[in-house]
């Protein structure tokens, strides 16, 4: 009887830990400069904040993960542990498809 209670307790503990790990446990997600600027503008629009600059940047492992506003608002970008890490995409002004479209237009202009 005691063995059944120990086994049941073990499985219950494992299930609770699994639920916490997959659905609740979070870690910090680094912010790109574009994300930071967008979040700052959204904060100012939604709350009517009148401050002119971010009070301080919040960093973890030499990466910006959030900011503090002079009005007292604090934002930290978090993600679930099980989510993939979002890699910041670098944009050089136009996508690959638009570049190929522009080059095909130039070729057509040269032919005519």
Total domain modules: 1
Biggest sheet character: 3 strands, antiparallel
Number of helices: 3
User: What's the number of extended β-strand segments?
Assistant: 5
Low-pLDDT stretches? none
Strand content: 15-25%
Strand order of the biggest β-sheet: 2-3-4
* SS-based class: alpha+beta
Overall 3D shape? elongated
CA distance, first residue to last residue: 90 Å
Helix coverage percent of residues? 40-55%
Query: What is the rounded Rg?
Result: 24 Å
**Element string (H = helix, E = strand):** HEHEEEEH
Oligomer: single chain
> Overall mean pLDDT score?
80
Describe the structure.
It is built from three helices and five strands; from the N terminus they run αβαββββα. The model has no long low-confidence stretch (mean pLDDT 80). It is 47% helix and 21% strand. It is elongated, with a radius of gyration of 24 Å. By secondary structure, the protein is of the alpha+beta class. It starts with a helix and ends with a helix. The chain has helices at 2-23, 33-47, 96-111, and strands at 26-28, 54-60, 63-69, 74-76, 78-80. The strands form two sheets. Strands 2-3-4 form a three-stranded antiparallel sheet, with no helix packed on it. It has one domain (2-85).
